[in-house]
Design a protein that fits this description.
Layout: E1 9-15, H1 19-28, E2 36-39, H2 49-52, E3 69-70, E4 83-84, H3 106-116, H4 123-133, E5 134-137, E6 162-165, H5 174-183, E7 201-204, E8 209-210, E9 213-214, H6 217-228, E10 232-235, E11 240-246, E12 249-255, E13 261-270, H7 273-283, E14 286-287, H8 289-294, E15 301-302, E16 308-310, E17 314-322, H9 327-332, H10 335-348, E18 360-364, H11 371-376, E19 388-393, E20 405-412, E21 419-422, E22 433-435, H12 442-459, E23 468-473, H13 480-490, E24 492-493, E25 525-527, H14 542-560
Parallel strand pairs: 1-2, 1-13, 2-10, 5-6, 13-25, 14-15
Antiparallel strand pairs: 3-4, 7-18, 8-9, 11-12, 12-13, 16-21, 17-20, 17-23, 17-24, 18-19, 19-20, 21-22
Bound molecules: flavin-adenine dinucleotide (FAD).
Flavin-adenine dinucleotide (FAD) binds next to helix 1, helix 7 and helix 14.
């Protein structure tokens, strides 16, 4: 609580104790001369058991641990709205996410370096930060099929902060997935390690789970730092409403429901995530001047890119009836099994609840001679980067429709479409308008049609004979137009929003921060979270965010040491 703080002036104030913010606060407070304040709008993660149990991660959505955003109706998705969860708890979205831990391709980061003019963002430069983030655990897989999940040890850190590892529970289709890589190696080659920098093929999933429990930025970076360092204060249940100061020294923070103004002598670091960081900036008068004026917000800095270019990856599911109960559906439909799973997890972190949603991820590129690329161009950063991700799940894509169903999620990793975060004119300080812009680019729609066909190819391998009975949705033999209609009416998202306050090259006429993540034109204000990512990587986003936060911490320390 603000009134309990022993001081109101710090060296650094980190706004948002989420994935990135917890890392930055923890790393900065390693220097005992720095007084650091971390402000989180949500509650503490301590005692929130559901956040620790991997198999219960969906229960955190639409709870008090979620900001509960909803997108605006999307023209490309049949005017539907989508839920847009964001973590409202220490650890932020890393405390509620699906825990897949993937870095993307080396080409993704080399493009970041190229567009920002900073070689420090290249794959070779940022890789040490991936290693610094992770403590890869050798886990034991419980399958009796003779399979052993594999990874490449040279691609991993073993002494970092956050637990990562391979699957521990055998799932119904594991053996068949491996058979697909043997049967169709030219389309679905086996990939030894999904985090090697060249993620093309089918590999064992890696997740931010250790000893059966979720590892979040709060459990990994804050639990020890916050309790043992007198130079780090953590405020929870405290919402920052705006930041202000002079352009030479942007160093004051205002919070809701308090008269107290907090001051950062050195820097304010905004880590409120891809929706709330632009929301705070806009409410602070940093954004497009015309749009701010229309909302009666005094312009402090004209930066038109604030809230623009929001990028996310659309997801569609292909569903099948299958002849045996899948791993998750068996549990999701049976309360006795659920109680047993919880009991096993509570005793020693084992059992089905110690698992993420899928044991495999598959990545693929559109062929070089694809008509989709010749017609619309190639938005991917290079030949090592997949356009499509598939993850096969031995369950329905929706926990609310369980049964004898298997599904394949098809994700477009390299969308061309862009959305936005804008203030609600009726209530600028209330929830912003989140527009994902899905399928406003024709590339995305055509690439998603290809992705569905790729998913069908996967499950039509002989390896699935005797398991897959019938394609349920989209209807088998759908025409391209029917597939497009299915895509529009069933697309959801993987919640990987980035780029809403992007970094760009020094002196660039677009972008919000310089490559060192300082807001252009405002001394003392930095952004460190998913918003600054200049192009979405072919990845689930937490590992990239962790690497950004680790590097940013070093940049900030170097500035002030
Ligand atoms: C349901 C779901 C599943 C996902 N699954 C995966 C997955 O399996 N793998 C993966 O890699 N990624 C996944 N993601 C995405 C990934 O977790 C996020 O992209 C990433 O964690 C974002 O990190 P961040 O630091 O930018 O923001 P966050 O982690 O969201 O941190 C922002 C923090 O700031 C706080 N905050 C916001 N506004 C204020 C304010 N005004 N005042 C004070 N505090 C504030 C928030 O409460 C939050 O704690 C998933 C996301 C969701 C929603």
């Amino acid at each position: 609580n603000v009134s309990q703080l022993s001081r109101t002036t710090y060296d650094f104030i980190v706004v948002g104790g989420g994935t990135a913010g917890a890392v930055v606060a923890s790393r900065l407070s390693e220097n005992l001369n720095f007084k650091v304040l971390l402000i989180e709008a949500g509650s503490s993660n301590v005692g929130v058991t559901k956040s620790l149990v991997p198999g219960l991660f969906r229960d955190l959505q639409k709870s008090i641990y979620d900001w509960n955003y909803t997108t605006v109706p999307g023209t490309g998705i049949a005017n539907r709205t989508l839920d847009y969860p964001r973590g409202h708890i220490l650890g932020g979205t890393s405390s509620i996410n699906g825990m897949a831990y993937t870095r993307g391709s080396r080409d993704d980061y080399d493009r970041w370096a190229q567009v920002t003019g900073d070689p420090g963002w290249s794959w070779d430069s940022i890789s040490p930060y991936f290693f610094k983030n992770e403590k890869f655990l050798n886990s034991v897989y419980d399958g009796n099929s003779g399979l052993t999940p594999v990874s490449d040890p040279s691609a991993h850190g073993f002494n970092g902060s956050m637990f990562t590892g391979l699957p521990v529970n055998a799932m119904t289709i594991d053996q068949r997935v491996i058979q697909v890589t043997q049967e169709l190696p030219s389309i679905f080659p086996f990939l030894k390690d999904i985090n090697s920098g060249t993620p093309l093929g089918v590999g064992w999933n890696q997740a931010s789970i250790g000893n059966g429990s979720r590892s979040s930025s709060a459990t990994a970076y804050l639990s020890i730092a916050a309790t043992s360092r007198v130079n780090l204060d953590v405020l929870v249940n405290t919402k920052v409403t705006r930041v202000f100061g002079t352009l030479n020294s942007f160093n004051f923070v205002q919070v809701a429901d308090s008269e107290t103004i907090l001051k950062a002598n050195k820097e304010i670091i905004l880590s409120a995530g891809c929706i709330n960081t632009p929301h705070i900036l806009l409410n602070s008068g940093i954004g497009d001047e015309t749009e701010l004026t229309a909302l009666n917000i005094s312009k402090i800095l004209h930066i038109p890119s604030v809230g623009k270019n929001l990028t996310d990856q659309p997801k569609v599911s292909v569903q099948y009836s299958v002849n045996s109960n899948g791993f998750w559906d068996t549990i999701n439909t049976n309360t006795t099994l659920q109680a047993m799973a919880m009991s096993l997890w509570s005793q020693n972190g084992t059992g089905p609840y110690a698992s993420p949603f899928s044991n495999f991820l598959a990545w693929s590129r559109l062929p070089d001679d694809s008509p989709v690329i010749s017609e619309f161009g190639d938005p991917s950063p290079g030949p090592n980067a997949p356009h499509i991700e598939l993850f096969p799940v031995s369950a329905s894509s929706s926990a609310t429709e369980p049964g004898l169903v298997g599904s394949m999620a098809a994700i477009l990793l390299s969308p061309k479409s862009r959305g936005s975060v804008t203030l609600n004119p009726e209530d600028p300080s209330g929830p912003p308008a989140v527009d994902l812009g899905f399928y406003t680019s024709d590339f995305d729609m055509s690439a998603m049609v290809y992705a569905i066909k790729l998913a069908q190819q996967f499950y039509s391998a002989k390896a699935f004979n005797g398991y897959i009975l019938q394609q349920l949705s989209p209807p088998p033999n759908s025409t391209v137009d029917e597939l497009k209609a299915y895509i529009r009416t069933s697309t959801t998202t993987v919640y990987h929003g980035v780029t809403s306050a992007s970094m760009s090259a020094k002196g660039a006429s677009y972008g919000v921060t310089d490559p060192d993540l300082r807001v252009k034109g405002a001394n003392g204000l930095r952004i460190v979270d998913a918003s600054v990512i200049p192009f979405i990587p072919a990845a689930h986003i937490q590992a990239p965010v962790y690497a950004v936060a680790e590097r940013a911490s070093d940049l900030i320390k170097a500035t002030w040491s």
